[in-house]
Amino acid sequence: MFKLFSLPSLLLASLAIGVVLSTPLDAAARDDQCVPCPKIFPVCDCAEGQECIIVAETCTECAHAICITPAPTLRECVVCTLQLPECNCDEDQECVIVKQTCDACAYATCVSP
Predict the structure, then answer these.
(1) Signal peptide location in the record (predicted)?
(2) CB count in 10 Å sphere of residue 15
(3) Is 108 exposed, middle or buried (0-12, 13-18, 19+ CB in 10 A)?
(4) Fewer C-beta within 10 Å: the chain N or C terminus?
């Protein structure tokens, strides 16, 4: 998967291809003070699970590709009631309330001391 920064993706993709594949006259028209860049489109060789990001060429930096590890996706948590769990423990046991997590609702359990 490719992602582009700086401008909307479609516009930037066309600009990046145009700049990277431009002729020397185009580069000269851009600005004589800009860094010279190779006329190839950058590519990634990312590890599995990484995404390829194409960074657009600027006057100070050539277009290049980087591999990033995407942020973890948000997962849905279980939906629990707001009722506090209760124990029905024997006299010789203690009630322990286990707090709610994303994977399980809070619950009460009886333990022997």
Answers:
(1) 1-22
(2) 16
(3) middle
(4) C
